[in-house]
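Minutes, project check-in

Agenda point 3 was the complex the collaborators sent over. CS summarized: two entities, 785 residues total, and the question is how they sit relative to each other. Sequences were read into the notes so everyone works from the same version.
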Amino acid sequence: MLSRTADSIYWLARYVERAEYLARILEATQRLTALPLAYTGSTNEWESAVATAGCTGSFYKAYGEADEESVTDFLAFSPANPSSIRNCFETARTNARGVRTALTMEMWDAINGAWLELKRFGSGPFTREELAEFLRWVQQSSLRFDGSAYRSMLRNDAYWFSRLGLFIERADNTARILDVKYHLLLPAQQHIGGPLDYFQWAAILRSVQALTAYHWVYRESLKPWLIADLLILNDQMPRSLASCYENLVRHLDQIGRAYGRQGPAQRLARAIRTRIENSRMDEIFQTGLHEFIGAFIADNNRLGTAIAEQYLM
Amino acid sequence: MADAFDEMRHPEGGVRPAYAELATWLGQVPPDLLERRRREAELLFRRIGITFAVYGDADAQERLIPFDVIPRVLSAAEWSLLQRGLEQRVKAINVYINDIYGNREILRAGVLPEELVFQNPVFRPEMNGQKVPHGIYVHIAGIDIVRVDADSFYVLEDNTRTPSGVSYMLENREIMLRLFPELFARHRVAPVENYPDELLATLKSIAPATAAADPTVVLLTPGVFNSAYYEHSFLADKLGIELVEGRDLLVKGDIAYMRTTEGLKRVDVIYRRIDDDFLDPLAFRPDSALGVPGLMSAYRAGNVTLANAVGTGVADDKAVYSYMPEIVKFYLGEEPILKNVATWRCREPEGLAYVLDHLEELVVKEVHGSGGYGMLIGPQADPTTIAAFRDKLKANPKNFIAQPTLALSTVPTCVAAGIAPRHVDLRPFVLTGRDRIRIVPGGLTRVALEEGSLVVNSSQGGGTKDTWVLDR
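CS then shared the predicted structure for the full assembly.
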């Protein structure tokens, strides 16, 4: 297939996944900041939301202070933020339109429908109810798109490239949350069970849609090392780094088999997966959670570049 | 226009044979059925339109070209006349363009004035002495035909660059088959659905000699912002070929490649839907971001075939048009089967004098104009418009030709008040490959929906109809 087509499909999936992630960060932050201060500590959660979204630099170019209004506007609607939810849908649809014939009718309907409906929401200012409805709608739209792709696409390179985009983005998102919140998970803060941390931990899990999953997997109250274990090493958890890399390796292998050729992207993906598989939580904490996550984000970016160089340009 | 020829009814009453079944059926169906089907058709088109929307939803609705559910019917005899005429005309056009970029015998014989070619902005000196594969310049032609009586078909325009509209021909038929199965059961209508197949066979047949046994064909589009993008993606889909933009292609060592996920892949035939000017910034407009640097060089080296070839504009301007009967006679030694509309060339003093004297009754067109823009329809214009046009004409007579207003034939059409005759034209698509000429029976019928209007262009409120060629 044309590299441009593969590139558009890859980024289409990435942008839809990103929109969903942003919506969940906003939801979790809103929930956290609605608690009395005594339960959350005095940190500025809106500032940390911007950091988790990975756009601290561009945010402070546009706004002086991170508060509910500015952050919600920036992450959800701002035309100035290339990664705002609105722009994610805009870019996703532009990509989709350019490769219309490579998509199934269901996928096109899902993304085009979302784009048309986005106009219904206008650009704020929103009441809390409207914002909550909007954020739920974003997650539903993403689910619908992903489900359409999963159920209607032929299992060929177009499908595999869309999965690569999805899992690279998802791995990046999960890692970013850990990167910003790692200090809450460090064993140094051994006052386990304090109300302060409980709500922070719950917020982390909510951001990656894993609060219920946590209880099912560990049947325990929230423990920081188990949270880290769930998001990094647990391959049952669809948003964990381990699960993302299992998928990335599998889909890259499928592409390699179909094209009869392996390349740097396949080798790099396998190397990263092996590193994750060979890791144990206590070792990660010993050598430094922050360092581990930082190295992973860099690796994940490298894989994105390798995929682009090998296939998308 | 009261005396316009109606394709269904004789003036004295009675129905022409090709329309017999249709007229009976129109007499039997409940009055609201047509209106219901029309709404369904619109819904279907809107769905396709929105599904493929080139522009936003509001624009897509504006962009919808009105579709009339009553088909236009041609008998087998009428079609066979048209087919022979079209083949003849396109054959002559191809020989003519070869000659213009070759020996120029037609100029030496004095049949065609030299400046009409050399001073023509669409003449491409780059093509001088250039051999194109199998001597075919125009692989896809859209010839606009009008009819004035039972026996006379006139060519109104030869579109030999990048004619569009074939997607409407195909979609109109699909929609009709869905909405009126009972009507198809009463007729034997020649199919058009094999057009993409015929097009692909044509394109593959003109691949360069150096191409692989199964040549790679692509469709080159200017991109999503082009108004015909929907047609480009529709055709690429039906042909099963890649829809590429300029940035997907590159030229290395005079070979054209496309960038794919499996590396560079050689391209043998490019069905290009972008104008000559934008093909290659190194050869033509340097500011073109749509084209492919070096493409002309690969083309001239004979490593890639462009369809249509470069420089075919010399066959489709309106001044050259007026010489088409002479062109047919000169190259083929035959009388033209399809007539030309009488044309006065304002570049000639006696032509200009006649036109200035008869502005009120003539249609005056710009030589390079298209889409119905920039023309004067004398009988429908007020004195001020005519006076203003007279000045324009005197200032630059070379830029204009004039034709009598033809009484275009009419076909029954659904309008607000019921069924009424409306003027139509026809654009059949003529495919020329190495082996033979292919024409699917029919074409795109355009209809002027306003009462009395002769302008069928979609940009000016025209609609379309399905065109039926019967087997007898």
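Noted in discussion: The mean pLDDT of chain A is 90.
Follow-up: revisit at the next meeting once the mutant set is ready.
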